[in-house]
Structures are given as C-alpha cells and as structure tokens.
Amino acid sequence: EAAGAQHCHVVVDAGGAVSTAAPRVRLVPASTMKLVTAAAVLEALGPRSRLTTRAVAAGPVDAAGRVARIWLVGGGDPVLVSPEGEAARDRDPRTRGLARSRLTDLADSLVAAGVRRVPGGIAGDGGRYPSEPWPPSWPDRHRRSAVSGPVVALAVDDGLGGPGGTGAPADADPAAQAAAQLTRLLRDRGVEVGPPRSGTAPAGAVTLARLRSAPLAELVTEMLAASDNRTAEVLLRELALARGGPATTAGGVAAARRVLSPLGLGAATDGMVDGSGLAPTNRLACGDLVRVLEVAAGSRRLGAVLDGLAVAGMRGTLATAFVGTPLAGRLWAKTGTLDGVSGLAGELRGPRPLRFALLLNGAFPEAAGVARRDRMAAAIAAFPDADGPAGWVPSPRGTGPGA
Fold first, then answer.
1. Strand ranges (E), 97-217
2. How far is CA 246 from CA 53, 124, 251, in A?
C-alpha cells in the first residue's frame, strides 16, 4: 500500500533487480495487458504474417467489365481505412505514421481487374468472426464510446461513426458500412455499382482483388504505440483461429496461455480476461510484465514487443509527452490508464538501460492517472537518485504532477 493505493513495481538493469515492491501481486493492468497479447500473437503467427481482405464474386469479370455482385470478405485486418480515416490518423499524433490498410488500394485493384459494372452491388462479409462483437467482460460504457469499435472481421475506420471514424461506434452493421465505403470509392472511379449491403460470399467464389495488411510486426506496433484496443482484440481472435479455437475473446485467451506457457510466460495469462486491458477484471503482476519484456529482448520473433512501444516525445501515446526533456527518445513504454488505474511498462534506453513495470490502482479519475503515469516515468529517469519506493510511486491524492 502507498498512501491508500495498491501498487507494484519492478525495475531491473543488466545486473538484475534494482528496486521491487509487491512484484507478484496481481493488479488491474489497463492497457499494459497489450504486452501479453503482443507476445502471444507474435509467437503464434510470426512477425511477417499478414491479414487479407478479399473482393470475390461468383464468377470472373466478363468481357464487358460486368460482374453480377461482389462480396467484400473480411480477413480480420484491424486497420482498414477510408481516405477520411487515413487523414484522421495522420492528424492524430498517437496514430501518425503507424500501419494502415487503404481501401482505396482495393478499389484501384478492382478497376485494374477490369470491373466496370456491379449491378447487384457489394455485400460485406464479416463471417470470419460469427459471434460476440464485444468482449463479454467489457462494461457497457466501452461499447458506446470511441475507445473501440466492434470486434468484427470486417470494419473500415474501426467501425466507428463520425468523420473518418472519429466518433462513437456506429449503430449500423460494420460489414455493410465497409461495403458502402467500397461502393463509394468505386463510383468515384466511374464504376456502376448497385446498393451496398451485408451478406455471405458463396462457396467457391473467385477472388477478383485482395488487400494484404502490413506485416504482423507493424500491426503489433500500431496496437502498442497507439494503444489500439480494437486491434488488440482482433489479433487475439486471429490467435484463437490460428490455434484451432473459436474466434471469441475466451478462445483467444486460452490460445495465449497455450502459446506463452512454453516460453515461461504462462503466469502472465493467469489473470487475463481480454486482449486490450479494457476489462476491469483483468489482473497482472509487475513481475510478469517485466518477464514479458525480458523474454522479448532475447527473441527475434518477439522483437516488436519492444520495438513497437510508444516513444516519449516521438510516437504513439507518448508522442506529446516529455518533449524537450531528457526522456524524449529514451523512454520506450506501454502506457495503461483507466479510472483508478495507472500503469507504465517498458525500457529506459541510454548508458544504463533499465526495464521496468509499474502499476497503481486506487480511487482517482483517468486524467489524474495520466499525471501519475508521467510522475512514474520521471522517477525512473531520476534513478539512482529517486528516494526509494516513494519516488517510484506517486501519491493517489491530488490531480497534478505537484500532488
């Protein structure tokens, strides 16, 4: 306990433990849980694997450029974007420069394949994940806010409403929304297309065009650096499918446990409930977080766990933090923030590298958690001059760096 809040921390250097407190106590991790998800999907699927979105039809394009209907079949790519969605990502410092898959590229490929008329329209097929569009453990408020779109196999701009997917989850069917986006892009290119809808592609359909995602290592980087909740949950379902399980949250958690146990990381999944850390029932120990970082450091296959972290003053959730300070470019970390939860886990790079994990659970709002997270980072940067555990873990009272 520290000033009424539960906390843990582990800080290690090349020689071993530097400072620890309650390293085995499991606390609510918030988005630091994504480190566990990242390790599992990279180990199971490999950093070079890709996810594919396909445009298929019952038969080939005829000589006049006509195909009766096209089905847009989702392959789980979590970063499909419209032109407006890409622009929104470029404006946001948290997502700028990170992976995305342009639906315009698929539209261009269909035109290049000779498609000129689609009288039956485009049908979005998200049947790869047949059920459970939201993790059952998520509070209802997460299903009504922009923290994540629905966890489906086909969605453009995260299945969110607003310009470029900047709003809350849309009420419409995400697969039909994706079909509508592709319809618009094809019409812009002079293709005659009927009205969009959702539907299931026929067996034996012919692939007219495909859009491959960035390599998994880049998708993991997007997930970690931007703390993308939907990407985490989608990749967890891809892990479940790869291991022969159902495309559900529980199926993904079970697969993560099977994948990570041989690496000595099974304990990190003991309190795992989802892939993103949004579930308030997740539990994770600081010792297990640091162990994930250490195993990743010794594995080329898991390299994106470390290389994909947010970077102070440069990338992701830390892009606007610590600008112009000694931490800029040196602090590589996964942030974790919810009401009553503040966490940070990663590396301090420099002459004396440190790996660390810190979690603080207590009664404070989310904004105050961000301030506490920043104080945690400053305390690590001050090592070895921080004054013991009180220097590592700030007081839960107050709302700013001076509290």
1. 101-102, 117-118, 122-125, 192-193, 197-198, 206-212
2. 20, 21, 5
* Element containing residue 21 per DSSP (H, E): strand 16-21
Q: What is the pLDDT along the chain (403 residues), one digit of tens a residue?
A: 334 579 999 999 999 999 899 999 999 999 999 999 999 999 999 999 999 999 999 999 999 999 999 999 999 999 999 999 999 999 999 999 999 999 999 999 999 999 999 999 999 999 999 999 999 999 999 888 889 999 999 999 999 998 899 898 877 899 999 999 999 999 999 999 999 999 999 999 999 999 999 999 999 999 999 999 999 999 999 999 999 999 999 999 999 999 999 999 999 999 999 999 999 999 999 999 999 999 999 999 999 999 999 999 999 999 999 999 989 999 999 999 998 999 999 999 988 899 999 999 998 888 888 888 888 788 877 776 544 444 444 443 333 222 2
Q: How far apart are CA 238 and CA 216, in angstroms?
A: 11
Pairing of strands 52-57, 310-311: unpaired
Query: Residue 220: helix, strand or coil by DSSP?
Result: helix
CA distance 384 to 99: 37
Please report how many Cα atoms fall inside a 13 Å half-sphere around the Cα of residue 170, on the Cβ side: 20
- Residue 234 phi/psi, 5-degree rounding, is -65, -45
Please answer whether residues 284 and 21 qualify as being in contact, where contact means their C-beta atoms are separated by less than 8 angstroms: no
Q: The whole model's pTM is what?
A: 0.94
Amino acid at 368: A
Rounded Cα gap, residues 86 and 136, in angstroms: 30
Q: What is the spatial distance between Cα 79 and Cα 16, in angstroms, rounded to a whole number? A: 38
Provide the annotated active-site residues: 31, 34, 227
Residue 56 contacts residue 208 (beta carbons within 8 Å)? yes
DSSP result, 351-366: SS-EEEEEEEESS--H
